[in-house]
């Protein structure tokens, strides 16, 4: 255990929490704490969206996607209860991440799928890997922000292309939230069954075991099983919905950070279509008042503290090929997330849990983007799993 780093991380978390409560309120402070817990869960299980897609397509390893199905099933149940009852801790009306399905999401999710394989991490993966000591994620995050602001600049153009209106399964006549939940649980079960058949046919190498320990020490110093983290992430996303009235998201904060940076250089981004309404109002306020931003800060710090507990925080040098891939991946993810109304968290995880059709479409298109990216990754020195590997 890297005790000095643990102490530094805890001290930083206390300082940031105090600043958030002072500048904003305890609601944002609570969201920061939830962010800390999300960072811990992601780091302890190395819970991946990027790696899950890559392992599935390259060698047929289904462990990651099976964990996704468990996570989505638990979240859908909890979201259905919150939406149907209208309950939140703060009195805010709960609203889901439900967005249109059109050209923008098809292109955006596809680009994101390519980008996350180049950047070796998705939106959540970028944050927790950065906190966990991955040096290349600094480049990925900076490029992610740059891509987000470019996507915001082109946002009006993409929104003008053909699109279907937002659709939540509960809006289908005769379904409601109970019917929508039954449909989704059946889909999760079907996908899980299909993954079992894929595993039987492919007999893929299993995921590399994570460093761990025994007993209660495992909670803070070991690694968590994927399914444990899946359930914890679902619970924390539902808690996020019950606190702020909307589900977990990540990348809107990147567009905000990029917008503020552009404003500081004299570029008036407030005239851009993306920054109409609430997005524009956030430009004139502290980032500590932005719910998504404070949760992102929490994820980074939570992962840092967890890595220090494990003794795995060891930043290293960045190889030129990895650096190039990180920059390209970040740009594609940032741009794609704006077009697709979110990332692997806001669109895929929270979108599907909100019973939105666009969440399912996002998952399919990101998978297709992953398939294409696997052919190009070796050019940057990035390895793909092979069926002859003992582990992947």
Automatic annotation (TrEMBL):
InterPro entries: Sulf_transp_TsuA/YedE. It is a multi-pass membrane protein. Belongs to the TsuA/YedE (TC 9.B.102) family. It comes from the Bacteria. Pfam families: Sulf_transp. This is YeeE/YedE family protein. The chain crosses the membrane at residues 29-49, 70-92, 98-116, 137-155, 175-198, 219-239, 291-309, 321-341, 347-376. It is found in: Cell inner membrane. The lineage of its organism: Bacteria, Bacillati, Bacillota, Bacilli, Bacillales. The keyword Transferase does not apply. Its main location: membrane. Keywords: Cell inner membrane, Cell membrane, Membrane, Transmembrane, Transmembrane helix, Transport.
């Amino acid at each position: 255990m890297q005790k000095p780093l643990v102490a530094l991380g805890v001290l930083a978390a206390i300082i940031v929490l105090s600043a958030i409560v002072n500048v904003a309120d305890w609601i944002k402070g609570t969201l920061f704490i939830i962010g800390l817990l999300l960072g811990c869960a992601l780091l302890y299980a190395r819970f991946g969206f990027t790696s899950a897609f890559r392992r599935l397509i390259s060698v047929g390893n289904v462990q990651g996607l099976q964990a996704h199905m468990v996570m989505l099933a638990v979240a859908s149940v909890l979201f259905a209860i919150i939406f149907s009852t209208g309950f939140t801790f703060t009195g805010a009306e709960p609203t889901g991440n439900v967005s249109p399905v059109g050209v923008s999401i098809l292109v955006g999710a596809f680009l994101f799928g390519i980008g996350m394989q180049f950047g070796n991490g998705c939106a959540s993966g970028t944050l927790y890997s950065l906190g966990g000591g991955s040096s290349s994620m600094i480049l990925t995050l900076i490029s992610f922000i740059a891509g987000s602001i470019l996507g915001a600049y082109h946002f009006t153009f993409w929104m003008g292309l053909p699109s279907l209106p937002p659709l939540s399964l509960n809006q289908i006549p005769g379904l409601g939230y109970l019917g929508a939940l039954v449909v989704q649980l059946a889909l999760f079960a079907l996908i899980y069954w299909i993954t079992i058949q894929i595993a039987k046919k492919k007999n893929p190498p299993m995921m590399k075991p994570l460093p761990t320990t025994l007993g209660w020490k495992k909670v803070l110093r070991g690694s968590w099983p994927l399914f444990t983290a899946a359930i914890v992430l679902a619970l924390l996303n539902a808690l996020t919905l019950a606190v702020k009235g909307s589900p977990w998201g990540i990348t809107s904060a990147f567009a905000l950070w990029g917008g503020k940076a552009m404003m500081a250089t004299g570029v008036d981004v407030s005239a851009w279509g993306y920054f109409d309404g609430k997005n524009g109002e956030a430009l004139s306020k502290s980032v500590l008042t932005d719910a998504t931003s404070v949760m992102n800060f929490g994820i980074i710090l939570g992962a840092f503290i967890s890595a220090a507990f494990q003794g795995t925080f060891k930043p290293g040098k960045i190889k030129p090929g990895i650096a190039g891939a990180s920059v390209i991946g970040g740009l594609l993810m940032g741009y794609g997330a704006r077009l697709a109304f979110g990332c692997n968290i806001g669109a895929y995880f929270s979108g599907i849990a909100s019973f939105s059709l666009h969440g399912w479409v996002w998952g399919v298109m990101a998978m297709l983007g992953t398939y294409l990216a696997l052919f190009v990754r070796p050019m940057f020195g990035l390895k793909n799993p092979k069926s002859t590997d003992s582990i992947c």
